[in-house]
Amino acid sequence: MGRKWNNIKEKKAAKDKNTSRIYAKFGREIYVAAKQGEPDPDSNQALKFVLERAKTYNVPKHIIDRAIEKAKGGSEENYDELRYEGFGPSGSMVIVDALTNNVNRTASEVRAAFGKNGGNMGVSGSVAYMFDATAVIGVEGKTEEEALEILMEADVDARDVITEDEAVIVYAEPDQFHAVQEAFRNAGVTDFTVAELTMLAQSDVTLSSEDQEQFEKMIDALEDLEDVQQVYHNVDLGE
Questions:
Q1: What domains, with CATH codes, occur in the chain?
Q2: 157-187: string of b/e by CB count within 10 Å (b at 16+)?
Q3: 135 contacts 159 by C-beta, under 8 angstroms
């Protein structure tokens, strides 16, 4: 797969930790998930998934509790889930997921982040068809062979299982996310290095150093937007 998920997560967490931006994004996502269903992860799969992701980023408990309590309190704050698609230099493709309480503001900010950094926003469907929704789960302390055996015994299918930086990374269909985690938990695994539902490019592109520098500025500009939750792309950045 070539994504090096542990490195990507660590790089992103290190960047966001300095500004606590990641905590704010998770707080919003937890609030939305809790408000859309029961504020209990045992009966709300969307909330359960967000909390699993938050755990891998070491989001503080008080951030999680505050977001859930806000949802329980009947806050009237509402957010729309939006997806934008666009293009960067030399055929690079980008998907941007956002949660916003002001659609016009978010659309304008995303369009500007693309346009000011050599890219342009496309129409719905112009990019997404080149990506596959994928569950990515990472564990330590297991070999690829042991991981495959655990999944087989639990009758859980995986697209791929690879080793990266002393961790085993499992790629699976999105609806297998919780099944993969449960299989590993039953085998004694308590912590996950990665727990993501992502949009994985069907093929990556490599940019020239100049284009890559511009592309990274564009991605940084998009990720810095308050309303943006996730940014996916098809560029091999060499992490």
A1: 5-72 (1.10.10.200), 80-129+203-233 (3.30.70.980), 131-201 (3.30.70.980)
A2: ebeebbebeebbbbbbbeebbbbbbebbeeb
A3: no
Least Cα distance to 137 among 46, 23, 53 occurs for 53
The gap between the terminal CA atoms of the chain, to the nearest Å, is: 13
Would you call 151 exposed, middle or buried from its count of C-beta atoms within 10 A (0-12, 13-18, 19+)?
buried
Handedness of CA 31, 33, 36, 40 (dihedral sign): negative
Residue type, 129: Y
**Secondary structure, 3-state, 31-73:** HHHHHHCCCCCCCCHHHHHHHHHHHHCCCCHHHHHHHHHHHHC
Task: Count Cβ atoms within 10 A of the Cβ of residue 36 and give its class: 0-12 exposed, 13-18 middle, 19 or more buried.
Answer: middle
Token pair in block for residue 148: 């495959």
Which stretches of the chain are DSSP H helices? 5-17, 21-36, 45-56, 61-72, 103-115, 144-153, 177-186, 209-223
How far apart are the C-alpha atoms of 112 and 221, rounded to whole Å?
9
pTM for this structure? 0.88
Q: pLDDT digit string (tens) for 43-76?
A: 998 999 999 999 988 899 999 999 999 998 877 8
